[in-house]
Structures are given as C-alpha cells and as structure tokens.
Amino acid sequence: MPAARDDDDLIENGGGKRSAGGSLLEFVLIVVVALGLALGIQAFLVKPFRIPSGSMEPTLDVGQRVLVSRVNYHVSDPDRGDVVVFKPPVGADDNRNECGVPNFEPPARGQPCPRPTRGRSDQNFIKRIVGLPGDRLKVIAGRVYIDGKQLKEPYIEPDDACDICNLPEEITVPPDHFFMMGDNRGASADSRFWGPVPEDQLIGQAFFTYWPPKRIGTL
C-alpha cells in the first residue's frame, strides 16, 4: 500500500514540470491581481499625495509625501485640526481666489469669505480644518478665533502683516461646510479667500508622511 502524503507534499510534488506557457500565464495573473489590489486600495482606502507648495509649512514641506485615508470620514466626522485633502470650490482655480459673494474682497471687507462659489475644482488641495459648521470665525494676526476664543495652534507659522492675516469681522461657517487654512498663514490661499468647503468635497484625512525618510511619522 502506498504511503499517504500530506497536503504540502501533494502541492510540492504532484504537478511535475510546468510548461513555459503555464508559468507565463501565472505571472500575468499575479501582476493583474497585484495591480487590481493597488488600484483598489488607492480608490477606496489609502492614497498617496505629494505636497506641491509651501502653504502647509512648517508641518509639511514642498515635495514631502503623505498618505491619505479615504475611509476615515465614512465612519467619523471631520474634526478641527485634521489635515485634509479636498477639492476646493471653483473660485480657487488658477489662483483666482474668488469668493462666492460677488465683489467680495476679504482684505477690504476685513472679513473671511463666508460662502464659496458653486461647483468643485478638479484640483486637489491640502489644508487644515480650522472651522466646523456653525462656528463663528475670525482671524487676527494670522491666528484663528472661534466664538471669540483663540485656538491653540502650536503647528502654525503665524503672520500678522499679510493682507488676509487680519480679518476681525466674524463669519459663521455654513452647515455641512468646513473652513480650511494652511499652517503657513502668510503664504496660503485658502478659505479666507474662497470660502468654506462643502463636506462632500473632502477626499480624506492625511495621517502619515513617508518621504523624505527624515520626516517619516504620523500627522
């Protein structure tokens, strides 16, 4: 009676030599599955982004790369302080910095833009959430005040002299909108110019930086 063989032996010894065609087909299938998984992860779970400008310095430098979770906001609400990738209103396109209120110029009005233009841009922006729906918000010396109280923002580069760093007249952030600002307060075109961002235009929360190596870590 032949000796019984365990599953490992059957897998290892049972097939003999593989044909060249079979090996090629297996390789192609592995590549296809790997690409499918990679695309699926990017589409539904985590996506990498490269920082294009200095608007988030000192937190994020030009060329730094981050991972963005696309699932966080399906299970929890966006929170103040989150670093977020999003589609801005079309008023942000091509550095137009257009507010949704006609002829609204924040420096002249002394007030942040209270309402975005309609429609979303095709660009991806990365900024920090500083204002939640219903917040009364103003900016003094590059620092954010919510309901009359200054936020604790140890991560920012403040600026008390830029043209949108002193906007002392309060606005109220609309329902289902979030007010975004760059950490580099004197060098960021953000919600101060083009208004709060609708919640459905948020792509996800940046949670980890993986390049350059010396900056690896959580956000």
Percent range for β-strand residues: 25-35%
> Which CATH class applies here?
Mainly Beta
How would you classify the helix and strand content by structural class? alpha+beta
Structural shape: globular
Tally of helical segments: 5
Helix content: 10-25%
What is the element layout, followed by pairings?
Layout: H1 7-13, H2 20-44, E1 46-50, E2 65-69, H3 72-75, E3 83-86, H4 106-109, E4 125-131, E5 136-140, E6 143-146, E7 149-150, E8 167-172, E9 177-181, H5 191-194, E10 197-198, E11 202-211, E12 217-218
Antiparallel strand pairs: 1-2, 2-11, 3-4, 3-11, 4-9, 5-6, 5-8, 6-7, 9-10, 11-12
Structure description:
- The chain is α+β, with helices and mostly antiparallel strands.
- It has a single domain (48-218), classed as Umud Fragment, subunit A (Ribbon).
- It is built from 5 helices and 12 strands.
- The strands form 2 sheets. Strands 1, 2, 3, 4, 9, 10, 11 and 12 form an 8-stranded antiparallel sheet that branches. The chain has a 4-stranded antiparallel sheet with strand order 7-6-5-8.
- It is globular.
- It starts with 6 loop residues before the first helix and ends with a strand.
Summarize the structure.
The chain is α+β, with helices and mostly antiparallel strands and 219 residues long. Helices cover 20% and strands 26% of the residues.
What key attributes describe this structure?
single chain; 219 residues; alpha+beta; Umud Fragment, subunit A; eight-stranded antiparallel sheet; four-stranded antiparallel sheet; disordered N terminus
